[in-house]
Design a protein that fits this description.
By secondary structure, the chain is of the alpha+beta class. The chain has one domain (about 5-320): Beta-lactamase, CATH 3.40.710. About 35% of the residues lie in helices and about 20% in strands. It is built from twelve helices and eleven strands. It has helices spanning about 65, 70, 75-80, 85-90, 95-110, 135-145, 160-175, 195-205, 210-225, 235-240, 275-290, 295-305; strands at about 20-25, 25-40, 45-50, 55, 180-185, 190-195, 245-250, 255-260, 265-270, 310-315, 320. Strands 1, 2, 3, 7, 8, 9, 10 and 11 form an eight-stranded antiparallel β-sheet that branches. Helix 4 crosses helix 9 and helix 5 packs parallel to helix 6 (about 135-145).
């Protein structure tokens, strides 16, 4: 199924970026500049702050789309991956026993040795199963086994699996796959250099109803939020507090993407300096602006994820505005 996009024809915005001020007492100690954009699933930029065309790597926010070949190849069905198993493939998990066990279960069902995982062993762990990307890697391996593709080179950019992932993402963006640039992520897998508006478009598709496989992905993430990150972590807690209306997946270096389920609307956030605290502060600020969470839900999420030292506060300046025509 081909999708069209209006993103490349969009005029550049003159709306200034958001700012996150870290205040110690009454004095400003640090300032983070943040770009954010909201798109619908036709690629129309609805609102933004800063540059909607800001280019950066999508990092782990790509995972819900990297899992698509796992579904379309029939590997998920063949190897008995339920919603919990599919969710762990989309997650950046905490490496707990329950997370590692779910990854092991997928590999066991596919009769793949744990040593086939090419993600690193975490510094605080003793197995690649505990790496936060192990679910994604397990899905890569299972898909490759189902399709008869090599297992030892599954992370190479010219591997059939990685080519298929790029093709699926380019289809969703309405772009030729040759226009997408990939580089190695910290876990060893390719990640894509995208405009922020393109990330928002991907998440608009994730929250829409035009793509059966993406609906399957979003249902799994909604039903098993603990597999996406972990208790007390932003993505898991936001999904739980969103009551079936929000899917969230962050990435390293200040990337945060959120999908509004059933409405085909996606949001993408990028902090220029890569600050994690700033992306969470902005996400909370925008969730409040759009009333996507109740006041009580916002306060609960803030208490769990926006932890700063006594006497320190984070203040967000600015808001998303409709683009000028």
């Amino acid at each position: 199924m081909a999708f069209s996009s209006d993103i490349r024809r969009t005029k550049k915005s003159t709306i200034p970026p958001l700012q996150v001020l870290l205040k110690r007492g009454s004095s400003i100690e640090s300032i983070h500049r943040v770009h954010a954009v909201v798109c619908d699933n036709k690629g129309r930029i609805l609102m933004s702050a800063g540059r909607a065309d800001f280019e950066t790597f999508i990092r782990s926010s790509l995972k819900p789309f990297q899992v698509l070949p796992f579904i379309s190849s029939g590997a998920a069905e063949k190897f008995k991956s339920d919603e919990k198993g599919l969710a762990i493939c989309c997650g950046s998990h905490a490496g707990t026993v329950s997370h590692s066990r779910e990854v092991f279960k997928l590999l066991w069902n596919a009769e793949i040795d744990v040593n086939s995982l090419h993600c690193p062993v975490p510094s605080s762990g003793n197995s690649p199963l505990q790496h936060n990307c192990s679910g994604k890697h397990a899905a890569f391996l299972a898909t490759s086994k189902k399709m008869g593709w090599p297992l030892d080179s599954y992370l190479q950019g010219n591997h059939p699996l990685q080519k298929e992932i790029t093709r699926r993402v380019s289809e969703l963006l309405g772009l030729p796959s040759e226009e997408l640039f990939a580089a190695r992520d910290d876990c060893g897998a390719p990640t894509l250099l995208l405009q922020l508006s393109q990330m928002a478009l991907l998440y608009a598709h994730l929250g829409g109803s035009q793509h059966a496989e993406l609906e399957q992905v979003s249902r799994a993430m909604l039903s098993q939020p603990i597999m996406i990150s972990g208790n007390g972590r932003f993505d898991t807690e936001l999904i739980k507090l969103g009551h079936g209306q929000l899917v969230s997946k962050g990435g390293a270096e200040g990337i945060q993407c959120i999908s509004r389920i059933g409405e085909g609307i996606g949001m993408a956030i990028k902090v220029e300096d890569g600050s994690k605290r700033a992306k969470h502060a902005v996400a909370l600020h925008l969730l409040k602006q759009f009333e996507w969470l109740t006041p009580g839900g916002l306060e609960e999420l803030k208490e769990q994820v926006l932890l700063v030292a006594p006497g320190v506060q984070l203040e967000v300046k600015g808001e998303l505005k409709f683009n000028e025509t």
